[in-house]
Structure formats: structure tokens, C-alpha cells
Amino acid sequence: MAGHGTDGHPHGADRLCEAGDRVYSRAVRRGRVPRRDAEPVPCLMELALLHPDPDDMDWLVPTSPQEVMTRLLRGMYDEVSASQRRVGSAVAAFERYAGLGRQAPESPPAAEGPAIRVLDGLARIQAAMDEATQACTTEVLTVQPGGIRREAELSEGLHRATALRGRGVRMRDLYTHVARHGQGLLTYLELMGDAVEARTLDEVIERLILFDRTVAFIPANAERTMALELRHPALVDYLGTVFERLWRLAIPLTAPLPDTGIEGISHREQSIAALLAEGHQDAVIAERLGISVRTCRAHIARLSETLGAASRTQLGVRIAQAGLDGPRRPAAPVTLPGRGSPSVR
Questions:
Q1: From CA 60, how far away is CA 53, in angstroms rounded?
Q2: How confident is the model over 279-320, as pLDDT tens digits?
Q3: 3-class SS at 198?
Q4: What does DSSP say about strands 196-201 and 170-176: parallel, antiparallel, or unpaired?
Q5: DSSP states of 126-162 as a string?
Q6: pLDDT tens string 48-87
Q7: Which of 76, 182, 211, 227 could form a disulfide with 148 if both were Cys (CB 3.0 to 4.6 A apart)?
Q8: What is the largest CA-CA distance in the chain?
């Protein structure tokens, strides 16, 4: 909408424009407002005064006036000499909003924050992550799906990891097996030393970052431009349990992947075979294993050649014959069709 962008609302959270004042006041009184009501005043989202309702993304809920004031003051105190007048303005403005808030259900204490908060936009996600990093004192657990980690992506998080290491925080990271082939990850782990321990699996859950078993971050959309900040103890404990169970199944990055026990079949091809047996399409298999569709199809072609399959239907039969269609069993000599055993017609 022309004229309704940042340029049309040149102000801070302490001096809202008239339209923003009306919408935010209504949100504080009622507990939430429809997203469409806030479209003419994007400043409310940009200033994090409103954020999506986790239960219904078509509605926006207000950040409590106390929490907003706390954020303002935290930044202002870094420049006290230049910001004294703004401090007074912020306090006066949000005391009025706090009065409106008494008509609504009581908000959680500002220090704790809401149990579930929707972070809309990369800047807000980054700011929340930086805040959690600064508060972290013990451990960070992460799950990093996808394939080979881009060096730019690893470099972006290096400053955060270095700060954590400096405070004695321990880090454990879970990746897919494909990530083992990226030099960037190996360099990152070498720089971090024993502060970071990494393990890998065939496939992992969606991205997860967990600080001190108190706050977790997970994606809220496929593009990862929105995230959920979770502080509910039950949710955080659940995610911690999921991580620990995956960690026990994972293989340390310093250890080689186990041999499949089947001549000519690699560990990755064994994983692909198991997913093919479950009926997944090439694109789904590629996404789950963190490889490209083209690479996935090349492995399927090699698997077909190794197992002597002339079609996808026959490949399914061969996979079952070779014992590649279920949980991995202890390695045992396997004779593949076409290598001394009768073929299946």
C-alpha cells in the first residue's frame, strides 16, 4: 500500500503516530486485533508492538506495555546522555498504555515473556537469538537439517558461538550425514575446539535451537522468515527430550559411518533404499536426506544397477530381498540378485 511503509511512519515506539496509537490502544484493551486492522500502520509490526497470534495468524496480539518499555529502556541506557528526554517520553507514553492494559487479562511478567511468541521477520529473529545468546550460561543444543552447510551461514553464527565458548557454554549440534562433506563445517568445528560436539544422522527434524533448557526457537513457516520463541516449560522439556533421543542414535562426526555389510551399497544408498521402500518420491527423499534431487536420482540409478533392477517396481523387490527396506540389522554377508542367486521374475 503506497504511503504506508516505514517512510510514512517516521517515529519510534515512544511516539506513535495517531493511527498506530488507535490500533495499539484497541489491541491492549481487547487482547488482540485482526491483522487487516494493522495493515495501514506497519510501524506497529516493525516496532514489535504487535505480533501474530500463535493460535490464529489472522490476528495480532499486543506486546505488553511493560515489556515494550523494558526494551526501550535497555537500549536507551547505553546512551543515557543523549537519550534522557526519550526515556521520559517512553515512560509517560507506556504508563498510559499500561492503564489500558488493566482492562485486559493480566499479561505474564515482562522478565519472563510470553510462553509462545511469534517472531515475524529475520531482523526480529536475529534480535531474539542474540538476546538468548547473551543470557545463556550452560548449554546450547541445535538441530541443523539440510545438506552441506554454506560457509557464509557458518560464518554468520561464528560470533555467537565464540561468545558462548568464552563464557564456558557447551554446545552440541546435530547434522545430517551429508554435512560431513562440507569443508566449512569442519573448519568451524576446528575453530571451536572442544566447546562444540557434533554428531550426524541420516535425517533429522526441522531446525531447533535450545538455550539452557529454558527457551527454544523453531521455524514457523517453510521459508524460515518467521519463527516461534518457546518458553513454556512443558514444550521446552519435550524438545529437549527429542534432542537427547536423536543424539543417542547419532554418530559422532569424528567416527566413520558404519559399513552397510552389503557389497557395493553405500550408507547413503541404504538410506535412500529404506525411504523408497516406504513409498516416498525422489523430491521428498532428497529433502529428508539433505541432498539435491539430481544427486538423489543418481544414487537411485546406481542402486538399481547394483541390485540388478530394470524398473522402479523391480527395484522395490530387490530392496526387500537385500533387506534394505527396514531397520538396519547387524551386518551379514548378503548375495545380491544377479551375483549367484536366482533372479526374481
A1: 5
A2: 888 888 888 887 888 888 988 888 888 888 888 888 888 888
A3: strand
A4: parallel
A5: HHHHHHHHHH--SEEEEEE-SSSPPHHHHHHHHHHHH
A6: 888 888 888 889 988 877 777 666 666 555 555 555 556 5
A7: 182
A8: 88
